[in-house]
């Protein structure tokens, strides 16, 4: 009698690399979809911590994890000197570091999705630096926010704007509020969704959406996804594991803002 092969695709036999489960390595357990950083590796098991601080223990099975979308076998690290762990942004992790008391300075981003993406990739760095990220819900509110915030030497304000291209409404607003202590930068994408590399999502490219259509709904329609933009965003965000999944045009701007708001206070 024919018996179908029910083995999941990620566990079918073919050579896969072995990767040492060093602390800080971010992997996904595909059976559960749990994605997190390695915090402990013991005989036969590995403990992961996700971005919300939740821990899960998984067996060290062959072909048991995904690393940057590729199937790998996690193995216990060797007893030799461990390489420095890295945060999702690529910075050297500081084991046991406590979050710094929040600075007066802030980084504002244009919406909730932007804030969630920045938190996922730069969250560890921002907590060590004491930088709080808030969102605007639209660039039209920016002049009033900057006026109320009153940026100064000890309270710098950095702002990340979507679709900041010459001649746009966003560029005019940015020029109006930029000052010595307020920096507005932006990326060229219509929405921060586009700042995620298509290869990380398994799509050839981001689709072009006709003018006049809601862009996010049009993307879902073009890609054959359910027209639920909230669920679509959660899928997109789940595929972002580190800075390697983001376009350089976004990476550079966020790093620029972090450097700006954490610059030493003038005396």
From TrEMBL:
InterPro entries: DUF3097_C (IPR021447), DUF3097_N (IPR053883). Signal peptide: none annotated. Pfam families: DUF3097_C, DUF3097_N. Residues 18-77, 106-262 form the DUF3097 domain. It comes from the Bacteria. This is DUF3097 domain-containing protein. The lineage of its organism: Bacteria, Bacillati, Actinomycetota, Actinomycetes, Kitasatosporales.
